[in-house]
Write a sequence for this structure.
């Protein structure tokens, strides 16, 4: 178990590392899969590796206050580099690895990065492409040397070589490094993370050691995390959630961080590790559910019957079994039989057999998706947070988990609701400032430390749980005065495996309409089973049977929405299936796959107008960005369809 050390005795992440090397030295700290083989490091070994990197950075002349950009997929050496930079008194700034070079320019210029540590050749190439616009950047380091042999190494260094220089020359810098580590306090900057930029340029969120350590301590104790736990680190290192889970909580608790070989092998690696502590945004859980449903379509008639029979039982009693609530003896026997025949094998296939604590956040998850996982006996919960809070604002305690709330304030967090319904919070995790942006800092955080979230919500009077309605700027009113909350409907639509993304419009209008993105994997599998040939996403999206299936989903969602008195006006009257997937490279989504609603409204104004003027078809031409950064255009003629809506009062009376 965790030693009874108070957070106040540990003023920095490097201090936590030193404690872990001493107390948990022989326990696993990191694992990485490479070339199909897992290799591991204990806390003692990780501490040695990190110190060598820090000493190597000292050899290169790193100064206190320097900014160190880190770009790449989740790998132990890149996590170590972040902590090594902190040891030297520098500030790590992780960037999204899938960002194109032009996106990186702003962050690297804004923070004035002097060092850049890249994961591989691809990231090095992106930095070299924009290097002439980055006068502050001096050495560029890289971890994976494949493909790097013929590069000009005048300003390029292999990270392994730098660590070796640090190891062999440690006597020159040991004292200086120890002095810099001793200077670190609770108020020293721990990391700077850039926001997703849904409404403009990303902002650099400065988080102190106090923010990260206090949040990690409080939330680890809330969920009883322990050194024997395992997590899978696969989400972007530039995202605050990954930093809290893979650095903050990992270093406070002493559990093991496991890095998959690649995004393509993530699901296989997930099954091999079987994490006990697991986080995934809704899109990952949606994707896993989609893959399950696709496999069931290909299963035999008996297996389909078995699956649907026992899932009906799980849906009815599974959450109660999980929460330890009373369940009849016969239902408990049926559920246990389902565990042997269906739920256990399914959890094993998904890699979730050992999950003791699971979380989802970032976007609201559809209640049907959330309930599906909990019915299997997976302790999936919701948290509500943001970068400026060091993630956690609210969490769901065990036994108080529901799909329609985000729980109670996390330990140490105060939450209040303003008169206009906007959610405000303050906590030890509240960010220090937006870097070089005093105006935005003052607009977001007041003199008393209260932070405006930009989300609309309310506390349930009987439970004290917080319910988030939508982004405050997205919540509006229909022309007849009824509430408009698009995410509520969008999440219901995304429950269907055929639907990857949905964007609902209707603020200030007399009806709601929607754009739909089909899930190419799910719909493509259906097409193959039915011998339907197609050559592109666009062709499949326009197929009459696909249109009919999506229409059926929209109408089913309308029936569900009609039952909610407050939001019944959000039923979708008309829709179209977009001719392309919404893409971060095209500016339509953030790197964390949040929809940039305003950009979509501007970019596809002609399609929105057609939905509201009664058109049955519309021809359109859209600019797209290819993987190599080139621009192009795609043209399409789209079909617009009407969807049946329900009279809300009639539906409620029938219910």
């Amino acid at each position: 178990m965790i030693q009874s050390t108070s957070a106040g005795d540990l003023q920095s992440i490097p201090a936590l590392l030193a404690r872990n090397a001493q107390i948990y030295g022989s326990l696993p700290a990191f694992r990485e899969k490479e070339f199909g083989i897992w290799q591991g490091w204990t806390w003692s070994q990780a501490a040695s590796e990190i110190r060598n990197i820090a000493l190597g950075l000292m050899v290169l002349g790193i100064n206190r206050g320097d900014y160190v950009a880190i770009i790449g997929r989740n790998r132990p050496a890149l996590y170590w580099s972040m902590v090594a930079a902190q040891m030297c008194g520098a500030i790590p700034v992780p960037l999204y690895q899938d960002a194109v070079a032009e996106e990186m320019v702003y962050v690297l210029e804004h923070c004035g990065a002097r060092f850049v540590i890249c994961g591989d050749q691809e990231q090095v190439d992106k930095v070299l492409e924009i290097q002439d616009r980055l006068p502050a950047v001096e050495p560029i380091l890289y971890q994976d040397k494949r493909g790097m042999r013929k590069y000009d190494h005048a300003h390029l260094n292999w990270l392994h070589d730098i660590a070796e220089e640090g190891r062999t020359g440690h006597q020159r810098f040991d004292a200086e490094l120890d002095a810099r580590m001793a200077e670190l306090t609770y108020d020293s900057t721990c990391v700077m993370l850039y926001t997703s930029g849904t409404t403009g340029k990303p902002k650099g969120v400065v988080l102190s050691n106090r923010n990260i350590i206090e949040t990690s301590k409080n939330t680890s104790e809330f969920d009883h995390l322990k050194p024997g736990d395992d997590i899978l680190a696969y989400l972007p290192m530039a995202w605050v959630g990954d930093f809290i889970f893979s650095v903050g909580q990992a270093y406070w608790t002493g559990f093991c961080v496991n890095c998959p070989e690649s995004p393509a092998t993530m699901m296989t690696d997930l099954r091999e590790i079987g994490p006990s502590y697991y986080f995934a945004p809704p899109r990952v859980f949606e994707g896993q559910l989609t893959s399950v449903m696709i496999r069931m379509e290909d299963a035999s008639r008996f297996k389909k019957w078995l699956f649907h029979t026992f899932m009906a039982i799980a849906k009815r009693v599974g959450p109660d079994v999980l929460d330890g609530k009373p369940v009849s003896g016969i239902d408990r026997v049926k559920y246990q039989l389902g565990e042997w025949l269906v739920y256990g094998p399914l959890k094993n296939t998904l890699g979730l057999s050992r999950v003791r604590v699971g979380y989802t956040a970032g976007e609201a998850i559809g209640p049907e998706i959330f309930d599906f996982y909990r019915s299997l006996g997976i302790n999936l919960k919701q948290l509500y947070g943001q970068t400026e809070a060091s993630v956690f604002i609210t969490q769901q305690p065990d036994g108080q988990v529901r799909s329609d709330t985000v729980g109670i304030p996390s330990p140490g967090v105060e939450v209040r609701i303003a008169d206009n319904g906007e959610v405000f919070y303050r906590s030890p995790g509240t960010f220090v400032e937006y870097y070089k942006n005093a105006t935005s800092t003052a607009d977001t955080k007041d003199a008393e430390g209260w932070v405006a979230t930009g989300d609309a919500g309310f506390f349930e009077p009987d439970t004290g749980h917080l319910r988030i309605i939508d982004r405050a700027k997205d919540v509006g009113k229909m022309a007849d005065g009824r509430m408009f909350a698009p995410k509520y409907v969008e999440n219901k639509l995304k429950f269907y495996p055929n639907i990857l993304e949905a964007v609902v419009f209707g603020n200030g209008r007399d009806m709601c309409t929607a754009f739909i993105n089909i899930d190419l994997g799910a719909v493509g599998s259906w097409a193959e089973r039915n011998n339907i040939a197609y050559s592109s996403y666009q062709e499949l999206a326009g197929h009459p049977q696909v249109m009919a299936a999506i229409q059926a989903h929209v109408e089913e969602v309308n029936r569900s929405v009609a039952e909610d008195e407050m939001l019944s006006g959000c039923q979708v009257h008309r829709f179209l299936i977009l001719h392309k997937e919404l893409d971060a490279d095209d500016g339509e989504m953030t790197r964390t796959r949040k929809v940039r609603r305003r950009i979509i409204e501007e970019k596809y104004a002609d399609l929105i107008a057609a939905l509201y003027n009664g058109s049955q078809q519309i021809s359109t031409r859209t600019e797209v960005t290819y993987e190599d950064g080139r621009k192009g255009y795609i043209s399409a003629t789209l079909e617009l369809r009407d969807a049946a809506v329900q009279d809300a009062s009639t539906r409620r009376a029938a219910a």
Notes: The domain at 476-654 is CATH 3.30.300.30 (GMP Synthetase; Chain A, domain 3).
